[in-house]
Amino acid sequence: MHAERIQQFEEQLHQELQQEIDSNEENSDNDVGEGSSTSVHIKKIGKKKGEKLKRKEAKRQYREYLDQQIQARKAQEEILEEQFRRKQLEESIRRADELEKLRKEKAKKAKQEEKEELKKQKLQEKNAKARQTKYSKYHQKIKAWVKEHKFCEVEDLARAMGLNNEDTEYILKQLCKDDPEFDLCLWSGNQFLFVTRNDYEKFNQDLKEKGKISIHEGKIYY
After folding, report:
1. pLDDT by residue (tens digit) across 191-205?
2. Contacts with 42 (C-beta within 8 Å, 6 or more apart), sequence order
3. What ranges do the domains of the chain cover?
4. Is the overall model pTM greater than 0.90, yes or no?
């Protein structure tokens, strides 16, 4: 705002100086015409004209100075405007680069998550296939073993079959799910009890007669 006021003042001063110069030139022409009668009068007019010419030259130089200042200011404003446009362009490019970087990182993360999920699914499928293979191989042996022993610890059964606890428990649960003979079996933590309908009938009879039943070391006592 201050720079604009200075510029307006200089332009106004420039106009006033130009008007004064034009007026002085007209007066100078009039003085020359009037001073043609005597040599003394011509000498005085010449001195006056010289002073006017000096003032005219000084004003001309000042006018050039003002013109130079105006042009310099315009050039400076153009430079500032160009710097501002360049800064805006650089900021726009920077934001675009950041957005592109975020997009790539997001795409990379999504791809990695998809890869991990696919890997997890393949591992689950592999484990399920391996368990199914073990089930097909061992479920009859485990079925015969628990039917014979009735009560067992999962760890003991796994050791007897040469399996780990997880696979052994999986096979027992699949038998309970798919084999009707295992419908009435009982779980208690890692303990398993093979119970048939006949066993339940005997339990009921024993409870009526003795008031209790006992399970100890894999055998059911009535």
Report:
1. 998 988 887 777 777
2. 35, 36
3. 139-210
4. no
